[in-house]
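We close this part of the discussion by returning to an individual protein. The sequence in question and its C-alpha cells are set out directly beneath this paragraph:
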Amino acid sequence: MKTAYLATAFFIGILFFTPLSALAENAGASAGASAAGSATGMPANEGKVLSTLDAPGYTYMELANTEKRFWIAAPTMRVKVGDRVRFDQSLVMKNFNSKTHNRTFKEIIFANSATVIN
C-alpha cells in the first residue's frame, strides 16, 4: 500500500512539476535569445542586404547583421542592396549547389517568407 502511494505521488509530481520546469526553461531561453538580439542590435532572423541573385521562384540575398554575413533564399521578392530584411527560417543547407547560378553556397537558409522592413 505504501508503495502505491509513493508511485502515485511520483507520477503526480511528474505531471505537475515537469511541465512547469520545462516552461521555465523555455521562457529563460526565449528571454536570453531576445536579450541577445537586442544587445547586438539586430535579431538573428534579420539582416541588411549586401547583394542579390534572382532564380526562378527565389530571390537569393546575402545579408549581414551585427553577428555575421550569410545567404538566404526566399520566395521571389523585390529587394535592393541596403534594404533591411526579416525572414522566417525554414531550412538550413550546407554546401548547397545552385545549378542556376553555377555556384555552391557554403551555407544557405531557405526562408518560408521574407519582408523588407525599412
Notes: The chain has two domains: 1-40, 46-116.
